[in-house]
Amino acid sequence: IGASTESSDNGANGSDNDNNSIAGSLFGFASYMARGFKSTVVEAIKTVPDILGEDDETTELLNPRDDRPLSMEERDAIVLMKAFCARPSTPDDLVGQFLARGFSRCLPSQSPPVLTRDGVVRGKDARLCHHGLEAFGVPNVVRRVVHENAKEYHSVVAGCPQLNINDLILSLREQVLEEATFVRLLKWWPKFCRIDNGVERFGVRLKEVVRYLTNVENDNPKKETEKDDDPEVVQVQRLESILYYTDRKFPDGLPLPETTLPPYLQKLIGQRTLENNFYRDWWSALPFEIWTSFIVYHSCMTKGLQSEDKIRRMSLVAISKHFDSLERKGRYLELLAPIKDSPFLPCDVDGTGGKTTNHTLKCPAELYLASSDLSAFEGCGDFHKVDESVTREGVSEGFLLAIGVRKTISMDFLFGHLDTLKWNENPKPLINYLLNADLSRHDLSKLRSTCYLPAENDRSSLYAPSDLYLKNDELKIFPFVKFLQWNSSEGMPSAHRDFLIKLGLRVDPPLSSIMTFMERESSKSEEERDNESHGAALQYLTGRLGPNGLYENDFHYYRNVKFLPCIRQNLEMGEVVNEMQSPSACYYNPSCLVMGFSVLDPKLDQIQIANRTKCEKDPSIQILLKRLIQLVNISQAKIQHLEKKAGDISDEREKLNTTISTLFEQVFLYLSTRASDFDKRSVSVLSKTPFIPCETRGRLVFYLPSQVFFKKSSSTSEDNDISLAESLFQEIEYNAFLSIAGVKLEPSLSEFFELMLKKPDEVLDCLGEPKYKQLLRKIAADPPFKQVSKEIQTCSFLLGYLVMDEELESDEKTPATVQKAQFVLARAEDIFIVDNSFLRRQFSMLVSPMEQQLEEFYNRLGSKYVSQVVKKEFQVQGRALRNTPLSISFAERIEERAPLLLSSSISSRPLIPNASKVLNKQYLEIVQVDDIKAKYSFERSSKLLNVTCCSKKLGQNMVLCITENFDWFDVGSAIGALILQRCQLEDAFFLSSLLEASLDTLRSRGFPVDRILRPVAPPPPPPPPPPPQPPKPQRVEAMPNHPTSSNSITMNGSTQSMKPGVTNQSEQARQQSREENEGDGFEQILSQMFPHFPPDAIKELLGPNPSKDKAREVANQLASGAFQNEAQNKIATEAAKGGKNGINPMPQEEIGQTQNSQKEEIKAAKKKPSSSFMGKMLGSFRHQSHSAKPPPSENKRVIHQHAGHAHNNGSDNNKPSSPENDAAHQKSLEQILQQSIESSRSVGGSGISSPETILKSLPQGIELGSDGCEVIPSQYIHPFVGPYGTRKSLNGIRVFAAAQDASSQVATQFLSENFDAVDLFADILENLCLVYRLNTSTVAVYYDPTGNTIAFNSNKSLYFNLRFFCALHRRNVDSACYSYWFTVMAHELAHNLCTAHNKEHGKYTESFVMLYLPGLTKLLSTKGIP
Question: Phi and psi dihedrals of 313, rounded to 5?
Answer without folding.
Answer: -65, -40
